[in-house]
Amino acid sequence: MELLYLSGLFLFLLFLLLGMGVWVGLALLGVAWVIMEVFVGRVPGQGMAMVVWSHSTSWTLTALPLFIWMGEILYRTRLSQDLFRGLAPWVSRLPGGLLHTNIAGCTLFAAISGSSAATLTTVGKMSIPELQQRKYSEKMVVGTLAGAATLGLMIPPSLTLIVYGVTVNESITKLFMAGVVPGILLATLFTAYIAIWSLLNRDSNTVKEPKTSLLEKLNASRLLIPLLVLIAVVIGSMYLGFATATEAAAVGVIGAFALAAVQGSLSKSTIIDSVLGAVRTSAMIALILMGASFLSLAMAYTGLPSALADWINHLALSPITLIIALTLFYIVIGMFLDGISAVVLTMAVVEPMVRAAGIDIIWFGIFIVIVVEMAQITPPVGFNLFVLQGITRHDIGYIAKAAFPMFLIMVFMVFLLVVIPEIATYLPSTAAQLK
Fold this sequence. Notes:
Elements: H1 2-19, H2 24-40, H3 44-56, H4 63-75, H5 79-91, H6 100-113, H7 116-133, H8 138-148, H9 159-168, H10 172-200, H11 214-220, H12 225-239, H13 245-263, H14 268-302, H15 304-315, H16 319-334, H17 339-356, H18 361-376, H19 383-392, H20 396-419, H21 422-430
């Protein structure tokens, strides 16, 4: 009873602060301060200074601003224009036609941005006008884009995986490798859905694209080839053990500058805007991580995480049952918080439970990302829904209904991950010298 009382009290205080509009990072720091002062009886200042400094100066965390900067640089190039022209000839003859540019574009941009919102904004501005002009189904255009943009959370360099790795003290490189196959598989499932929908709706009124030769396809894609090389170098260097995540991120930034220069998009304003954008995003995430680290310390002093883990052990839940419960839990949490906040907010309590159940922590990171992806397209506060509302002017309900099939595909992906855990664990286990 005391366990439930404390848990409920801490959650009430946290959501009270969030409901008042307090920043997530400051809300976490505030709750931790109250716990230390009222429930633990220790002076909060010294503990907060120690844990915030130790987490803020982590070398692993250096990869975060670098990958964000790489995405910011490429976001400000002509990539969004070149993306459609380069991808369209390759997918136009598939069942579903140019709807596949939503999936392919999001998959490609996810591999350089690490952010769902940036992926959705870039690909949405590129594909929506083109697909509307060709009279593709509006619900399919909106729905597939909402779902595919969540790949920005999964495919490396995923910002959510970096934050998760720092929070649970796990190798970022291993987590990146673990996200590759699930990310590609999920993109494949989205593509299959479009093809099946197209075959079942052959009367859909869309403009048929002309056939193009292989030479014409390669010519249209010439501006995307350097981008593909950059992605291969960043991910490949980590897989082969040539670079840590931080070193690969530095290579990515240099490559992004080179690509912007080749495209003629590199200017003083581009550099300044990319730096400011990276600083804003990095500072926001760093503040959340600081709050989460102090809250973890405060919670540890109360003994609540270990008590909850013992309670779960006494319930004798199977790992499958625990995963089902956590799936529902994170979908609900994700309706009110963004992905990064949902991860850092819950890890202090959830991590001991997961470890006690014998669940692989790398596998669990991929699971977390998938269920957070689901929350991105579920009302009332699904972040992708709001971004799409700003782009398309449709109401939230319309977008949520259009994205519901993609939500079901993600549920199926969780099932596959549970049944075949090697989807997430095989690549990290084979990669060389992961650090």
